[in-house]
Amino acid sequence: MRDKNFIIDNIKTLFYALIIAIIIRSLFLQPFYIPSSSMEPNLLVGDRLFVTKYSYGYSKHSFPFSPPIFKGRFFFSEPKRGDVIVFKTPADNRTDYIKRLVGLPGDRIQFIDSNLYVNNSEILKTRISKDDVIFCGERKIKVFTFEEKFENKKKFKTVYLKDFSFQNTDIFEVPEDHYFFLGDNRDCSKDSRFLSSVGYVHKDNLVGKAQFIFFSSDKSIGNFFVFWKWNKSMRLDRFFKRIN
């Protein structure tokens, strides 16, 4: 009888812990892992970060497995241009992407001679390095590094291939209740420029705002189980780094 009560008590404890974890994950904070180089140099493969779920209110995508328990978005707060946001891709409403918000509803986005324009105004771009090397998938590419600045004073680094491969586009007109996202690694990012795979993102697909990196390791050196390489693989300078 004592053994039976012990088992029941442990099951209850695990159940309550699971419920608390789901509530925290759904309403407050959720960890994410960066698997690709599309946001270099600001986010690196191997970064682990926290996203605040309450920043833009809640939709079904705030919860695990996106259950269809309600429609729309509650307690909605408009995101700001330049925010780094996790969202569900419109293609399948399941895959998590992380990109930088560039276009708000009603905005007109265009690249002209490799320069970004928002509502016919060129975004200020200042080159800060011409000899950087970053990843594009498994490849290393040589890039120019710039500091870009939005009209709301938001500043961040972006990188472009030296031959500026992404030069001119048609005008992207952001529909009502939708947003336009770009990767900071401008020539190596699948984002809203690719309408068939990502395109414009509905506000209900927003998951949360990326706030800070809590852990980072270079998987090319070693993974968590290769403990003798921890001193080389861990990027200690990125621990608890705020995401700009």
Question: Could you walk me through the main structural features you see in this protein, from its secondary elements to its overall organization?
Answer:
This protein is mostly beta strands. The chain has a single domain (2-242), classed as Umud Fragment, subunit A, CATH 2.10.109. The protein has helices at 2-27, 230-233, and strands at 29-33, 47-52, 84-88, 96-103, 108-112, 115-118, 121-122, 124-136, 139-149, 155-161, 172-173, 178-182, 201-202, 206-216, 241-242. The strands form three sheets. Strands 1, 2, 3, 4, 12, 13, 14 and 15 form an eight-stranded antiparallel sheet that branches. It has a four-stranded antiparallel sheet with strand order 7-6-5-11, with no helix packed on it. Strands 8-9-10 form a three-stranded antiparallel sheet, with no helix packed on it. The longest helix is centred in the N-terminal third of the chain and has 26 residues, at 2-27. The relative contact order is 0.19. The mean pLDDT is 90.
What's this, in brief?
By secondary structure, this protein is mainly beta. It has two helices and 15 strands.
